Amino acid sequence: MTAPKTEQLLGTLLARADQVIPSGQLAVELWNGNPPRRADAGLHVHISQLRRFLEQLTERPDAPSPVVTRNPGYLLRLGEDCLDLQEFEAAMAEGRNKLRRDLHRAAAAAFERALSLWRGPVLGGMATGPALATLDAWVEEARLECTELLIEAKLRLGRHREVVSQLTSLIGEHPLREGFYQYLMLALYHCGRQAEALQVYMRARRTMIEEVGVEPGRGLRKLHEAILADATVPTLPMAV
Questions:
Q1: pTM score, two decimals?
Q2: Cis ω on the peptide bond leading into residue 72 (within 30° of 0)?
Q3: pLDDT tens digit string along 160-192?
Q4: Residue 197 near residue 220 (C-beta atoms within 8 A)
């Protein structure tokens, strides 16, 4: 598909698959709140282009289009198909359930399965309106949360050495995410690298102050104090 607006239309309909999206909302999405004078006609053209594109993909040219006109707008029917995003959410929910039941190995496997569906930014550089931009931000946050939960499961399994290099990279990519600093400090401490764990805290503190002008959160500070005192350090960050 080469038409950016038609591609954007498909993304919007997929984001709310099997739900009717009013034509007015689709116009806001396609033209960022500044639709042309004949927005309805323009939307109809893009809907027709999208239907032709999807028709070329099906093995049954006589099958009804998955893009359905339904007052007050349009919907896209998935039928028996399943989006990667839905599979991701199901695997993540399974992982959470296993983690709550202390089934750490099964939880790690579920989180790894969820993350294996990740193939880069969900919209792949596609132009976005308000709805797609919100979806993009939500999916990225869900991916990071899933990554944190996977690391938690690995730490509970005692796989401290395995996560050190991964956490170092994640901190480089997300320097304001305190959870990654906490996990790295714990992993290093339980690998017998107490001094390095303390250096991670200093790096976190310096970054927080320079970037946003605040001290690290209470959880990170308490973990630092426990490691500094060589007290009993938990296998996971302490509750605030």
A1: 0.78
A2: yes
A3: 999 999 999 999 999 999 999 999 999 999 999
A4: no
